[in-house]
Amino acid sequence: MAAWLLGPVLALAAYDASRVLEVAASRGPRVAEQAKALVRQIERSGTAEELQRLKEINDFFNRRLAFKEDQEVWGVPDYWASPLESLEKRAGDCEDYAIAKYFSLAATGVPTAKLRMVYVRARLQGQSLAHMVLAYYAQPGAEPLILDNLRPEVLPASQRSDLTPVFSFNTEGLWQGVGQVTAGDPMARLSLWRDLVAKVRAEGFL
Amino acid sequence: MSLMRQIAWLILGVVLAALVGAVGLSTVSARQLMRTQLELKNADNAQALALALSQQQGDRELIKLLVSAQFDTGAYEFVRWRGANGETQFERAEAPRPGQAPAWFRAMLPIDAAPGVAQLSNGWNAIGAVELKSHSSYAHDALWLTSRRLLAWLLVVGIVAAVLAWAGLKRIRRPLDAAVAQAEGVLAGSYGQVMEPRVPELQRLTRAMNAMVQRVRDLFEAQAGQLLVLREQVHHDPLTGVSTRKHFLAELDAALRRDDGPAVAGLVLVRLRDLAGLNARLGRGAVDDVLLTVVSALQAYPESVAGCRVGRLNGGDFALWLPAEGVAAETARALADALRASLPAFGPGVQVALGAIELPRERPSNVWLGEADAALARAEHQSEARGDFVVEIVADPGIGRAQGEGLWRAQLQEAVSQQRGRLVEFPVRDRGGHLLHLECPLQLQLDADFQPATAWLPLAVRARMTAQVDLLAVELALKAIAADGQARCINVAPVSLADAVFLPQLRELLAHWPQASRSLLLDLAEAAATEHFERLLELGRQLRPLGVKLGLEHAGAGLAQVEKLYQAGLDYVKLDASVLLGVAGEAGRAAFVRGMVIMLRSLALRVYGEGVVDEMDAQALWDCELDGLTGPWVTASPGN
């Protein structure tokens, strides 16, 4: 009630495992179990090398989520699900994989400046389709590593000739200058990406 | 602070707080809205620009051109391209525009919208980010304009609210003031009722006050009614209803002594002849009828002329006091005619004799009665001889001023304008002998000597000069009070109240002596309360704040008939000698006086007694619990 009255609630900009578990528990035992596994995975990976983290988190989601269209899972043409939502459905489409990996890696301590969501054009069996992957830049300007659900292993971009990058974005600068996000601010939810980020923050990631 | 002022301040405070709060809140939330919109615009423009820049295959010149184009066609503080390592590759910037909003407004409500940031890529290569920030001055201008407009509107609304509140307060104030005035009136002994207001709280208050006032009135009226009954029993002859011998003699005494009567007055005696014989011949019942017929003829006078008195002296003797000059003879003849017409109906031999005299009022009462008896005896003697109604008139008082009225008026005016007057002083003492105040009748020096009021007051009334004379007396009294600090009492003629200039001049006079005014008492005759009641109320309203005390003098039986005495707001009442004379000798008279005292006390009035001549009466009056006495006995007895 108080939170509703106050409207914009300040969410601390940091990963909070207990918050993730708490939110998951409120959504039922199935998602709670999945969340526990994710939190354990993030904890384990947090101490590993970044390349190792990429592989573990990539595998974690590629194994657990089945590829399904948004229409089938959510009943709408396009839906950007948070990591917990994807784990709850045990399914998602390309951007849901990328999203889950992005925020989980951020949670393990990978700087978001090194991560980018990339719109790509994928050629699959002679067909061309819109796709989204997660790119990891070890150094700015270096060749990125690609985390994808079409090919489950982490590969350098040069070995992914099936993908043509179009545009990239991440959470850098999204909340610059303000330093804090107002999760309840309706203005902050104007785009799918902003809406998603606000949602993910409320779940305790980032 | 008064209740009304508190409410007014409260309303003002609430209106101001609402005004300031509304303007402040609205401005702050408008600022928040604008900041969010500006940030969204920054972010969206950055994304759109980044989308375009990411399609240029990393061509630096093209990217710079696009950045410039975006900057030139929009309103931006800066558009910046940062390389992958954060170093600035290209930047277009402009100093913040001043805008129309004043600097203090911008400083108080800064709109610090964050720049928009979007990532650039060339294929898989990250080539940095683009940052841009829009000008915020137009947002400040809009905020400034809306704030001012809102303030103006709310000011209008506030003024309307204040006017409405003021009108509302005035509406509440009227009944509240009425209730307060009523309460003050009750405190001052004036038991007035007011209209019930529509405001429920005040309505209950006023209803309670009105009920209280009504109860006091009822009580007063009940007491007055009892007094009337008592008076009938004590003062009046049970058969005929006119004054008993004793009471009539007291009334005559008092009438002769009072200073505002005519210089010459008349007395008519009527005797039903051979009362014993009539009783034997006609029977007691028929004789009673005869007596009633005689009385009804006599009663016509007091009923139509103020100050006339009728008394049954004994058996078949009646007396009629006429407080006017030159009417005794005429009255006696008219009475004889009336009786001549009505008495033969009871049979032959029913005869009356009438004697009328006219004398200066300054003669003592025994002279009056002796002269009248002599006249009556002569009439009876003649009627024995003639066997008819005989009227014997001795109407040659042998006095009266030779001079005309014009000379009188001139003398009076001269005496007043030259202030040739003096106050004689008679003490009013309480039971312990302490001097309460001095009763100060005015004496005017008309020719050589100082003359008492009996000599000039009737003329002053006729010449309508009582107001000036009374003002002179008040001035003399104020001077005397200022000199020795002793409370003094002045008689004011009732007709002075009817004079339009009297009250303003009196107020002006009192304003010159504010200290002395507090020790001044003004006596008004009963007539002031019966004939000039509204003026009396006005007098009380205006003089009470100055500390002047008001009272009625020569108050007697007529007091019970003064309607609304409970509303008059008087301080004291002086009971007339006609009520007080002989109280020691008759328990009934004492009971009447005691009843009057109780009734007047219930109205918070002090009660004094006038014209006390002997110690027995004085003692009886102290037993009736009067507050003070005056008269020859008091003047003669040494003060304490």
List keywords for this structure.
heterodimer; A: 206 residues; 5-stranded antiparallel β-sheet; two-stranded antiparallel sheet; globular; disordered N terminus; B: 640 residues; Alpha-Beta Plaits; TIM Barrel; 3 domains; 8-stranded mixed β-sheet; 5-stranded mixed β-sheet; 22 helices
Tell me about this structure.
The complex is a heterodimer of chains A (206) and B (640). Chain A has 206 residues and is of the alpha+beta class. Chain A has a single domain (2-202), classed as C8orf32 fold, CATH 3.10.620.30. Chain A has helices spanning 2-6, 17-26, 29-46, 50-64, 70-74, 83-89, 94-108, 192-202, and strands spanning 10-11, 66-67, 91-92, 115-124, 127-136, 145-147, 155-156, 163-169, 181-182. The longest helix of chain A is centred in the N-terminal third of the chain and has 18 residues, at 29-46. Mean pLDDT of chain A is 84; it is low at 1-12 and 176-184. By secondary structure, chain B is an alpha/beta fold. Chain B folds into three domains: 3-159, no CATH class; 264-394, 2-Layer Sandwich (Alpha-Beta Plaits), CATH 3.30.70; 405-636, EAL domain (TIM Barrel, Alpha-Beta Barrel). In chain B, strands 11-12-15-16-17-18-19-20 form an eight-stranded mixed beta sheet. Chain B has a five-stranded mixed beta sheet with strand order 6-7-5-8-9, with helices on both faces. A four-stranded antiparallel beta sheet of chain B has the order 2-1-4-3. Classes of the chains: A alpha+beta (206), B alpha/beta (640). At the A-B interface, strand 8 of A face helix 1, strand 3 and strand 4 of B.
Q: Which CATH architecture of the largest domain in chain B?
A: Alpha-Beta Barrel
Query: Helical proportion of chain B?
Result: 40-55%
N-C termini distance of chain B:
47 Å
Main interface: chain pair and counts: A-B, 28 and 32 residues
Name the CATH superfamily assignment of the largest domain in chain B: EAL domain
* Percentage of residues in DSSP E strands of chain B: 15-25%
Low-confidence stretches of chain A: 1-12, 176-184
